[in-house]
């Protein structure tokens, strides 16, 4: 202990050396502030030790934005339990430590819900979700977290800053003073160049939200998706939506990938609430068990599956729309199944939910790595993008499993390299380069929802051009002039494939802790606290 509850014993530091994703970086120390006073004392202490801070929720984000060499601030107990739902204004005021599932439990008492639904919502904190601009299956209809955040309070190096949508922030706050003096003029000067480089995609979590700020004028849009690099969120206000009680689902077996953009657009006409895609590679990995009882022989013929939900406020509304959508698919699809009964709906979706545990449980012979896992392209180029990934991974003889949010053109790719091949890292490196170039060339973004972290910072210059990078640097300097918050994330020049938790160069850790960290991942125990153990 160094004071203010900072733990520096090696077992604790190792427990926080990994999040989801590929990295292992042992921090200098770990602390778990419960109040604003404790948080402020820790920021002072970290400064005195010359250590940066890494804000962290449950550590389930994938691109290495929740690990680092400085002081990890485990915020899962911060202002514990603060979650006040106001049904009249349909808003919730909450601590960043609140998991999405807890927010939804509180909101449901008023027939309300937070409509963005990452699959990690059982544990992911609102602090982590706002900081990555998270998304989920419902994003196809409701957008990402950005659309639903009304205000945040961020603890900066210059004290707290309240940012509320549509409200001018305190003009005397040093961050705002620096922003107006340095960043606004830069954005104005480069306006045309900035616009030219914005990917034409439906989701984007790559870098600071300068383009959203240009439209809204709200600094809030810069802090959303900032991955803990601008300060520590200490309070959040979100908007809520009424719960839709009626639900029906549809499963469309697609003959070939080339049919995807057309079928997706046709489905969109029926206003689906979700629209997910399971590629053939996914069906082969996860499917046999899920389809054993189906009897439709889909597995051997389908190029992929689309799963979509329809929702409504009145009984029967969702079923009517899913039946109409199914009728419109006849002739276009290999097979269509509609489910209106809750058990049938669960059966249709079981295959999608089976993915993460199966992938996380694979062993070193086919180790699942998230390296190109978050690319998002214009929907019309979806099939082309999937084909490109197939081509590139086949060339390197590395298996890949693909699935994702079809309606948004967003594809999750898990590479499955065999770590016993001496050159596996070179193959993965070439895949990373070639797929990243392909996604940018297609007008896409390398991050649809997970963020940049330490994995994708080197891609931002190519994605956005030098003018946007200059704006990013100026934004970081306005909020965090001394680089105290999460350095090396979003802006940095480190090797994206260094500091890995797998392979010969991984920092060795005791087998007992290694097993514990592996179990968190394969059993999705992200909500479990790493703090009390010794
Ligand atoms: C199985 C699985 C499924 C997933 N599914 C989805 C999905 O469907 N959609 C999706 O978008 N993501 C998904 N993710 C990724 C991840 O769950 C999300 O990014 C989530 O929002 C992270 O929340 P967290 O509490 O774990 O944050 P962490 O991983 O701990 O942190 C994420 C980022 O937020 C910052 N941060 C956290 N709290 C604060 C704070 N109070 N102040 C400032 N910065 C902060 C951290 O510095 C870091 O940069 C999935 C992950 C897993 C393992």
Structure report:
The protein is α+β, with helices and mostly antiparallel strands. 36% of the residues lie in helices and 16% in strands. It contains 20 helices and 16 strands. The two termini are 13 Å apart. The relative contact order is 0.15. The model has no long low-confidence stretch (mean pLDDT 94). Flavin-adenine dinucleotide is lined by residues 19-20, 54-62, 65-66, 75, 96, 118-120, 124-125, 127-129, 131-132, 134-136, 227-228, 232-233, 356, 449-450, 486, 524.
Set down the secondary structure blueprint.
Layout: H1 10-15, E1 29-31, H2 36-48, E2 53-56, E3 71-74, E4 83-86, E5 91-94, H3 100-108, E6 112-113, H4 126-132, H5 139-142, E7 149-156, E8 159-164, H6 174-189, H7 191-196, H8 210-216, H9 220-223, E9 232-239, E10 241-242, E11 246-254, H10 260-268, E12 274-279, H11 280-291, H12 298-301, E13 304-312, H13 317-329, E14 335-339, H14 342-353, H15 355-360, H16 382-395, E15 399-405, E16 410-416, H17 424-441, H18 460-464, H19 466-479, H20 511-522
Parallel strand pairs: 1-3, 2-3
Antiparallel strand pairs: 4-5, 5-9, 6-10, 7-8, 7-9, 11-13, 11-14, 12-13, 12-15, 15-16
Helix pairs in contact: 6-19, 16-17
The chain binds flavin-adenine dinucleotide.
């Amino acid at each position: 202990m160094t004071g203010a509850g900072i733990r520096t014993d090696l077992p604790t530091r190792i427990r926080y050396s990994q999040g989801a994703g590929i990295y292992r970086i042992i921090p200098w120390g770990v602390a778990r502030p419960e109040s604003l006073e404790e948080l402020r004392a820790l920021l002072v202490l970290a400064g005195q030790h010359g250590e940066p801070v890494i804000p962290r929720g449950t550590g389930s984000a994938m691109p290495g934005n929740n690990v680092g060499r400085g002081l990890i601030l485990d915020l899962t107990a911060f202002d514990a339990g603060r979650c006040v739902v106001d049904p009249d204004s349909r808003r919730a005021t909450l601590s960043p430590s609140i998991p999405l599932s807890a927010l939804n439990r509180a909101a449901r008492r008023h027939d309300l819900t937070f409509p963005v639904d990452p699959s990690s919502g059982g544990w992911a904190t609102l602090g982590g979700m706002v900081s990555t601009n998270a998304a989920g299956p419902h994003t196809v209809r409701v957008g990402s977290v950005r659309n639903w955040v009304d205000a945040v309070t961020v603890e900066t190096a210059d004290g707290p800053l309240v940012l509320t949508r549509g409200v001018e922030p305190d003009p005397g706050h040093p961050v705002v003073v620096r922003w107006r003096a340095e960043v606004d003029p830069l954005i104005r000067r480069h306006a045309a160049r900035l616009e030219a480089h914005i990917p034409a995609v439906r989701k984007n979590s790559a870098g600071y939200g300068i383009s959203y700020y240009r439209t809204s004028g709200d600094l809030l849009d810069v802090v959303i998706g900032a991955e803990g690099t601008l300060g520590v969120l200490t309070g959040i206000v979100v908007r809520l939506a009424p719960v839709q009680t009626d639900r029906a689902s549809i499963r469309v077996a697609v003959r070939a990938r080339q049919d995807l953009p057309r079928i997706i657009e046709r489905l969109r006409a029926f206003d689906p609430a979700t629209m997910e895609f399971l590629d053939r590679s996914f069906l082969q990995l996860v499917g046999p068990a899920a389809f054993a009882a189906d009897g439709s022989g889909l597995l051997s013929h389908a190029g992929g599956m689309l799963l979509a939900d329809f929702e409504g406020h009145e009984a029967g509304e969702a079923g009517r729309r899913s039946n109409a959508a199914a009728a419109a698919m006849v002739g276009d699809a290999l097979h269509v199944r509609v489910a209106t009964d809750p058990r049938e709906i669960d059966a249709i979706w079981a295959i999608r939910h089976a993915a993460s545990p199966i992938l996380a449980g694979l062993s070193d012979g086919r180790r699942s790595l998230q390296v190109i896992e978050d690319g998002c392209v214009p929907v019309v180029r979806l099939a082309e993008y999937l084909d490109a990934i197939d081509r590139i991974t086949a060339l390197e003889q590395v298996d890949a499993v693909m699935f994702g949010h079809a309606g948004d053109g967003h594809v999750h790719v898990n590479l499955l390299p065999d770590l016993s091949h001496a050159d596996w890292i070179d193959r993965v490196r070439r895949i990373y380069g070639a797929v990243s170039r392909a996604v940018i060339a297609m007008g896409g973004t390398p991050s649809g929802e997970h963020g940049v972290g330490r994995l994708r910072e080197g891609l931002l210059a190519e994605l956005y051009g030098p003018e946007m990078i200059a704006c990013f640097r100026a934004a970081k300097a306005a909020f965090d002039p001394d680089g105290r918050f999460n350095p090396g994330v979003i802006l940095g020049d480190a090797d994206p494939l260094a500091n890995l938790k797998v392979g010969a160069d991984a920092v060795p850790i005791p087998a007992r802790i290694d097993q514990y960290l592996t179990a968190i991942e394969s059993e999705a125990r992200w909500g479990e606290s790493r703090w009390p153990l010794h």
